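Protein modeling request. Please complete all fields; requests missing the sequence field cannot be processed.
Requester role: graduate student
Desired output: 3D structure, C-alpha cell encoding
Chains: 1
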Amino acid sequence: MITALGLAKPWTWSRKDATIDVLDKAVVIVATGAIFDRVLGPNARS
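Delivered output (46 residues):
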C-alpha cells in the first residue's frame, strides 16, 4: 500500500534495507502462524 501511494520506492533501497524489510516481514508471518496454530490449531480447546 505504501508503494502504491508513492510514499516509498523499495527498488531504490540498498541491499541491507531490503534484507531488513524481508526479515521483518518473515518474523511477523512466523509469529502470526504460531499464534494462529496455538489458538485455532487441532489441539485448541473450544
